[in-house]
Give the backbone structure.
Amino acid sequence: MHNAVIIGGSRGIGREITRSLQEEGWRTVVCARHEAADSESLKKDGCGFFRCDAGDSNQVRELYRYTKGILPSVDALIINAGMAWEGLIQDMPEEVFDELYRNNLKSAFLCAKQFLPDMISQKSGSVVFVSSMWGVIGASCEAAYSAFKAGIIGFAKSLAKELGPSGIRVNVLCPGFVKTEMTRHLGESVAEQMIDETPLGRICTVHDCADAVLFLCSQRASFITGQVLNVSGGMVI
Ligand code: NAP
């Protein structure tokens, strides 16, 4: 039996990662800032759901305590929480920049800091950060989001070097455009534009993301660390 914590797993990509892990027999603890629409089902069969803002160190400590009461160990930590904002840089309020930093990058630091010591003691574990293709190639009108997603990549590569000797693997998933709550407001025209620009001729799905995360967490990826896996249908090559 393997155990995973999914930061930001109440909907979208994180929810599908959780569903897929459970289907493969993993026990999961999921967190999000708000109660999930199906939080009861997330709590079934020895699994857990905990309301937590991953950008707040006190709440992350509470999440850790809750997790200790549910899971005997944490074999995989999936750091998926994030938020986006589109607009010209000159129109971006400073508070929005700070909020993006908190949700996309500080949350990753706080969760890694809280959960890694146990993995170091057990000398095993897999950490997967969910970044974005925009963190690799940059996105017009998403400069701050792209910066924090790029920050995740640097953070993960450094941790891979720091934690490899402790038997911990650290990798990054960079999805292409996925239809979720986060992108709903962008509408069909943006989705169509993404399809036009993607060599494989479709947009990314939550299933594509979950399959890649499952692989990175599995024994099949046991010699893979510090890598950025672009799941973008060839948009990033
Ligand atoms: P989503 O549908 O908005 O889901 C985001 C999840 O993260 C929700 O469960 C949300 O729940 C949680 N979350 C956000 N901030 C949090 C915080 N501070 N603490 C705890 N949980 C938090 O977004 P998504 O499209 O599935 O995106 C998931 C990840 O993939 C994000 O990191 C995003 O940047 C990245 N990504 C998305 C796309 C895309 O096209 N959709 C592409 C590339 C990368 P609450 O709001 O209740 O906290």
About this structure: The pocket of NAP is lined by residues 7-14, 31-34, 52-55, 80-84, 103, 107, 130, 132, 175, 177-178, 180-183 (CB under 6 Å). The mean pLDDT is 97.
